[in-house]
Amino acid sequence: MSEKVLCLIIGGGPAGYTAGIYAARAGLFPIIYEGMQPGGQLTITSEVENFPGYPNGESGQVIVEDIKQQALRLGAEIRQGEITEADFSIRPFRLVVNYEKEIFAKTVIIATGATARWLGLESESQYRGFGVSTCATCDGAFFKNKTVAVIGGGDTALEEAYYLSNIATKVYLIHRRNQFRASKAMQDKILKTPNIDVVFDAIPTEILGEKQGYARKVTGLQIQNIISKKVSNLELDGIFVAIGVTPVTELFVEQINLDEQGYIKTEGARPLTNIPGVFAAGDVQDPYYRQACTAAASGCKAAIEAERYLADSN
Question: What is 2-115+246-313's CATH number, 1.20.1250.20, 3.10.150.10, 3.50.50.60, 3.40.50.1980?
Answer without folding.
Answer: 3.50.50.60
